[in-house]
Write a structure and sequence with these properties.
Blueprint lengths: L3 H25 L7 H27 L7 H28 L9 H28 L5
Helix pairs in contact: 1-2, 1-4, 3-4
């Protein structure tokens, strides 16, 4: 259905959608924290998960036969771990606010950490994209 290049552009489009949703969520955090803010975050996480399952996992598995540099592998694994942490933190925050689990850590503090981690994960993914698809090596 998609060529390799088309899947990259579809995934980039989804990442732009996620960034836009996060920007809207941040603007709504102080105005309507439990309404629109939460809805934007839930949609962003859902789009991100779909992107990971549909595009990123197959891409990662297709790289298994290639000998990549140690710095690239380090950034890729850091990107994967930080992305997984973002998803886990987001689920924790949602469950804490809905009182389905007790709050061990203040969810409001976790939100700020999660946003920062999400931005760093996005930048790491953008770097991986530049290396893999554009041949640009920055590190």
């Amino acid at each position: 259905m998609f060529s390799d290049l088309n899947t990259v552009y579809v995934d980039l489009f989804l990442q732009i959608i996620v960034i836009i949703l996060l920007a809207f969520a941040v603007t709504q955090a102080s105005k309507d924290p439990y309404g629109k803010h939460c809805k934007f975050i839930i949609i962003a996480v859902t789009v991100q998960l779909l992107s990971v399952i549909a595009f990123m996992l197959p891409s990662m598995y297709s790289l298994s036969g290639f000998n990549m540099s140690s710095s690239f592998n380090s950034i890729m694994y850091l990107h994967h771990l930080s992305g997984l942490a973002v998803i886990i933190f987001t689920i924790y925050i949602k469950l804490s606010f809905s009182e389905k689990i007790p709050s061990v850590v203040d969810p409001l503090k976790m939100m700020k950490i999660t946003l920062l981690l999400w931005i760093l994960t996005f930048l790491g993914g953008f770097y991986l994209y530049l290396v893999l698809w554009e041949g640009i090596i920055l590190i």
